[in-house]
Amino acid sequence: MVRQFIDEESGKVVEQSVMNSITIDCVIFGFDKGSLEVLLIKHAHGIKKGEWGLPGGWIKEEEGIDTAAHRLLRELTGLDHVYLEQLKAFGEPDRFPLGRVITIGYYALIKREAYNVVAGFTASDVRWFKIDEIPSLIYDHNEIFDFSLKQLRNRVRQAPIGFKLLPEKFTLLQLMQLYEEILGIEMDKPNFRRKILKMKLLVDLKEKEQNVSHRAAKLYKFDNAVYKKLANSGFNFEF
Amino acid sequence: MVRQFIDEESGKVVEQSVMNSITIDCVIFGFDKGSLEVLLIKHAHGIKKGEWGLPGGWIKEEEGIDTAAHRLLRELTGLDHVYLEQLKAFGEPDRFPLGRVITIGYYALIKREAYNVVAGFTASDVRWFKIDEIPSLIYDHNEIFDFSLKQLRNRVRQAPIGFKLLPEKFTLLQLMQLYEEILGIEMDKPNFRRKILKMKLLVDLKEKEQNVSHRAAKLYKFDNAVYKKLANSGFNFEF
DNA sequence: TCAAAAGTGTTATGATTACACCCATGA
DNA sequence: TCATGGGTGTAATCATAACACTTTTGA
């Protein structure tokens, strides 16, 4: 099967061979103003024109699947160098109406303020949706989204991937609210502070918030080097 | 693409259309005499004839992927109605030498004593290997195995899937040794007893071991109904 | 009676939880 | 001065880990 692509160097439309009957779909999570959100695109062409779905596409014949997922994200939304992890393959025989197509689901975590999302050339619209306001999506994309949320809730308890959703500099309350939002639970502020600080994963930046109408909070950043040391010597990230 | 299959009703060889460039491979775990083992097959045909690999095969055109994994397990090893869970898709472009093929990895947990493993018609040999004695496998099957072991170690801490590897009736020491073997750690017998019994997941069968040359241990079974109740109300299975 | 594993008891330590309460800042 | 969130303190409770010890059974 042959498909059209925008060549990333020349910017011209080129034709390339892709794998038949296998696609990639991607759930993109962002965190903004206390809400966990997902990026959806409105299809500009095809049988599902005008409907919302997950960004996705075909895998080139000579390209690995992780590479393909990164490329698709770049093409469809302008996002590059983001945290991306595979969920699993979805392959019910009737999931796609025009033939047998298996899709590999991915999820991405992005720092909202670092990116400006644009609609790629196959999308007519791109928008963030709160996770409890996801519309009815094309094909089995609601199932893929549900699975991705479960996976995120699981993974966030095992490794500090939550930080991928926050700005470089953040306050402890922002971090706590992120965990509350992802896990759908309420936490105790004093206890959360102590617990996260005891882990020694955060670096005190000796800076404070600016222009807030209450006592300014200290800013912290995540220390990836310390995390790697701790992760090797066995380490638990439960909340 | 068309492949040959043994029809499950008539027992005759039939031809059926399968999905092109996508396969399934399965890591089958069993537990015997204190050791965690994996079932491998020696290929009888093809370019990798005589080499060990994971059982696997093609997906029929009208068959879901989970269904395909169950069927393949049945065809290749005689195993039916086993616990089976998808790992993820493996799709490096060079993983398969004769063309671009993506594979979907699965892992199975089976009760060794309940099954008699046989070599299916494409395998010349089938054997259990201890997890620290896995030979060099075909394609990227060592990578798939490594991932499956990581996944098993993770999952076993989140849900009581370990029981799928034990006989219906087991002693607390057997259970503890299973966890020790899977997680690769040593545990304290008195503390393990108390912890697992406090969870209320085990039913005391009021029976004892027979013919052991030491004090006979009580036999227990896993109570799935209680587990489901506990799992709903939030529940932790850490060891 | 001995070995081997079953099974109980005890104590120190640390984590978790649930609060009360004071502090800093802009409106 | 008041609201808002920042930040500290404390005591009760619960979980974990380490290890000493008693019991049962067949060889």
Overview of the structural elements:
2 copies of one chain form a homodimer. Chain A has 5 helices and 10 strands; from the N terminus they run E-E-E-E-E-H-E-E-E-H-H-H-E-E-H. With 239 residues, chain A is an alpha+beta fold. Chain A has 2 domains: 2-155, Nucleoside Triphosphate Pyrophosphohydrolase, CATH 3.90.79; 160-232, Winged helix-like DNA-binding domain superfamily/Winged helix DNA-binding domain (Arc Repressor Mutant, subunit A). In chain A, the strands form 2 sheets. In chain A, strands 1, 2, 3, 4, 5, 6, 7 and 8 form an 8-stranded mixed beta sheet that branches. A two-stranded antiparallel sheet of chain A has the order 9-10. In chain A, a hairpin with a 6-residue loop joins strand 1 and strand 2. The A-B interface holds A 19-22, 59, 61-66, 86-89, 91-93, 100, 102, 104, 154, 158, 238 and B 19-22, 59, 61-66, 86-89, 91-93, 100, 102, 104, 154, 158, 238. Chain A binds a DNA duplex (27 and 27 nucleotides) through helix 4.
What topology does this entry show?
Two copies of one chain form a homodimer.
Chain A: E1 2-6, E2 13-32, E3 35-43, E4 52-53, E5 56-60, H1 65-77, E6 83-90, E7 102-109, E8 123-130, H2 141-155, H3 172-183, H4 189-198, E9 202-208, E10 218-222, H5 224-232
Parallel strand pairs in A: 2-7
Antiparallel strand pairs in A: 1-2, 2-3, 2-5, 3-4, 3-8, 6-7, 9-10
The structure holds a DNA duplex (27 and 27 nucleotides).
So how many helices of chain A? Answer: 5
The proportion of residues in beta strands of chain A is: 25-35%
Largest sheet of chain A: 8 strands, mixed
Oligomer: homodimer
